């Protein structure tokens, strides 16, 4: 079995489940060569991924959570780090600054507005009978929600989402330096937001971030910009790619689609969790060993890259009964689409509300889906999902 978890070609059409299955059975913690780099340990079993993600004392999020870091293309940020690339207790302190905005009760308070946005998004395409589902539907919801949360114009949220797509694309699929340029454009926009919110603070997350304190001091400019990049970047990944990848899964499994539609509201919660397991939009997260240790029978050395493959963990037969079967009624579903431990996705409650709102609108108002052209997948080994998904459908 040829194993290549770096090439975007391995992820064209979805995650490489045949490679994952071979690794789980034969080499669940395996050394993977990295052209131009030192290589990394690929971790593919559910139990090992679960353990690594929780053990920040052994496996650090510093210096980065990606195998190769697109932020490095944008230059050095001195002592400043993105929150995702911190360990507790530093990570805990920064996470507290925004945690209240993303608790389950706070997310539920936004439910009515999110449902209204979902209706607005589907209103724009329902009578056309065709659309690019990623660009016109799935990508709109998280772009709008994070824009409103940050106090930005909705259309700006859409343009910022295009930059995140570039950041997540594999460097070899882009012109030289394109990833770093996208990061710098995000910073340029964030600098304008920073100036505007300092001059005219509003009731939004950007204004609150600029006013809050960590360790008795206000955020410095670069700390705010890295926070801004994180919120825009991470705010759309799971929702956008789950909606498009999830709808594709329903089209490919008409029996499951029919079962869901028999009681959409009652069956949506378990269906959503199963689609999250099935699609696993975030392919991996990297950690770096802080000391010599052992994992899956392998000796891990201090400084080694250790990469958790969530898509593989979510198909592990040791954790899931019939893991390669899409079962929207699956009750026992310990998936890790949002990670776990101290770095569990802060926006998971908001993402679930966004997903439910969009699925309600899409599945009740758009019928008889069929692909109008082949799906184009994002050329990435970090985020899994369609980049373009032209659909024909009948408005209901």
TrEMBL record:
Protein name, entry field: Cytochrome P450
GO biological process, one term: cholesterol catabolic process
PROSITE patterns recorded: CYTOCHROME_P450
UniProt family annotation: Belongs to the cytochrome P450 family.
Pfam families per record: p450
Entry keyword Nucleotidyltransferase: no
Organism of this sequence: Phenylobacterium kunshanense
MF terms in GO: cholest-4-en-3-one 26-monooxygenase activity; heme binding; iron ion binding; steroid hydroxylase activity
Keywords: Heme, Iron, Metal-binding, Monooxygenase, Oxidoreductase
Signal sequence, start to end: none
Gene3D superfamilies: Cytochrome P450 (1.10.630.10)
Database matches in PANTHER family: BIOTIN BIOSYNTHESIS CYTOCHROME P450 (PTHR46696:SF4), P450, PUTATIVE (EUROFUNG)-RELATED (PTHR46696)
């Amino acid at each position: 079995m040829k194993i290549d978890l770096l090439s975007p070609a391995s992820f064209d059409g979805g995650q490489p489940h045949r490679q994952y299955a071979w690794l789980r059975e034969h080499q669940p913690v395996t050394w993977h060569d990295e052209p131009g780099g030192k290589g990394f340990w690929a971790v593919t079993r559910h139990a090992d991924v679960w353990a690594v993600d929780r053990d920040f004392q052994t496996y650090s999020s510093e210096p980065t959570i990606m195998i190769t870091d697109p932020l490095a293309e944008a230059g050095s940020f001195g002592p400043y780090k993105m929150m995702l690339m911190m360990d507790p207790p530093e990570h805990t302190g920064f996470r507290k600054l925004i945690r209240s905005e993303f608790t389950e009760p706070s997310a539920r308070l936004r439910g009515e507005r999110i449902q209204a946005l979902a209706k607005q998004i589907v209103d724009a395409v329902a009578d056309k009978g065709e659309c690019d589902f990623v660009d016109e539907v799935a990508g709109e919801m998280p772009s709008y929600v994070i824009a409103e949360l940050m106090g930005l114009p909705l259309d700006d949220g859409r343009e910022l989402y295009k930059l995140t797509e570039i950041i997540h694309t594999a460097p070899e699929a882009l012109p030289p330096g394109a990833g770093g340029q996208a990061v710098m454009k995000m910073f340029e926009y964030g600098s304008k937001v920073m100036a505007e919110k300092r001059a005219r603070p509003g009731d939004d997350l950007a204004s609150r971030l600029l006013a809050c304190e960590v360790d008795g001091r206000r955020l410095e400019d670069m700390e705010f910009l890295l926070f801004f990049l994180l919120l825009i970047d991470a705010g759309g990944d799971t929702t956008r790619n789950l909606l498009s990848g999830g709808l594709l899964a329903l089209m490919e499994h008409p029996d499951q689609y029919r079962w869901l539609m028999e009681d959409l509201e009652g069956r949506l919660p378990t269906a959503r969790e199963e689609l999250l397991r099935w699609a696993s939009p975030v392919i991996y997260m990297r950690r770096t060993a802080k000391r010599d240790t052992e994992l899956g029978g392998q000796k891990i050395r201090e400084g080694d890259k250790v990469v958790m493959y969530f898509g593989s963990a979510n198909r592990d037969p040791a954790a899931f009964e019939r893991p390669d079967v899409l079962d929207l009624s699956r009750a026992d579903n310990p998936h890790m689409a949002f990670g776990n431990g101290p770095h569990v996705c802060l926006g998971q409650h908001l993402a679930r509300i966004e997903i439910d709102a969009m699925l309600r609108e899409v599945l009740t108002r758009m019928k008889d889906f069929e692909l109008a052209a082949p799906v184009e997948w994002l050329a990435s080994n970090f985020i899994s999902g369609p980049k373009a998904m032209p659909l024909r459908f009948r408005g209901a």
